[in-house]
Amino acid sequence: MTNSAGNAADVDPGLIALFDEVFADYRATHPHADSSTRDTELWVKAEQLGVVRLTGSEDSGGSGAGWYEAAELITAAVRHGVRIPLAEHDLLACWLLEAVGAPVGDAARTVALLDADGTATAVPWASTAERVVVTWPDGPNQLLADVPATDLRITPGTNLIGEPRDGLSVDIGSLTGTTVAAELVEQLRVKSALVRAIQVCAALDSIVELAVEHTSARVQFGRPLSKFQAIQHLISDIATEAALARAATESALMTAVDSDWSAPNLRFVVAVARSCAGHAASVAVRNGHQAFGAIGTTAEHRLHEYTRAALAWRSEFGSVRHWDDEVTRAALGAGGDGLWSLIVD
């Protein structure tokens, strides 16, 4: 694979079809897979296909692809309801190791930002990882270590859809840390936030698809639900909010990739994407369940896989209010004369 140089439209359709095929097959053979564990069978298959380290450099054993391909991979996993820590492993943990020149190897990883006491909360997939890349403050500096999970105190927890979100603690005095630039730590925060925006958008797209399919097929009083004006309004609002969230997220991704994650307004555009995705989730969940009625609340129907996922992911790596505040502060700071530049630069 080669690094994507243009935009999302340049991603090989055959690659997207491969992602869909792998996840669709897994979903068909594992309809009730446990979200709280990392399926080793799927992980091995993903390794064999070269997607576990999709964006890693070829020199370090990666596939050399870019973030556009990774976004399609993440989206395909969401679309098929497959829970697997590909983003945490490849885009966050392994990327950070490569960035500081540390060896990567084959261990399954996640990443955690520790406080000065060596603790972190809601760490994604920590209880299923083999190693955890941790960073922590050391005076004016930030240090990094790649730690075996067995050396950490991990308190299992889950998010709304059962994915591991674990407590973690370690005696940082026992760790040998490598100095990591503050810019890389900030980039890690931004990348983490953008990953969740991509996932929320994928869930919203699936909600729209399911809602359109259901209301077109379901007949009440002699005509499809989609012919009722109230239902049309529900669906159009979901579709509009999903499209806005998708546009904001794709814009943020393009800004990030085109600037090699160094654009001066990058945090602002990511904050906009997260804000739009977060508010869109509220509309999509409310309207989606209204359009489905009672059937949409059952465990047997797949709607909840996407509505609960959207609600869970929108609150991770910063709440909706947090990102709303970020947008507000940046806009006020730019003032009337600088607001346009903040948006387009």
UniProtKB/TrEMBL annotation:
The Acyl-CoA dehydrogenase/oxidase C-terminal domain sits at: 194-315
A Pfam family in this protein?
Acyl-CoA_dh_1
InterPro entries the record matches: AcylCo_DH-like_C, AcylCo_DH/oxidase_C, AcylCoA_DH/ox_N_sf, AcylCoA_DH/oxidase_NM_dom_sf
Q: SUPFAM superfamilies annotated for this entry?
A: Acyl-CoA dehydrogenase C-terminal domain-like, Acyl-CoA dehydrogenase NM domain-like
Q: Which cofactor does it need?
A: FAD
Key words, A-Z: FAD, Flavoprotein, Oxidoreductase
**What family is this?**
Belongs to the acyl-CoA dehydrogenase family.
Q: Tell me the protein's name.
A: Acyl-CoA dehydrogenase family protein
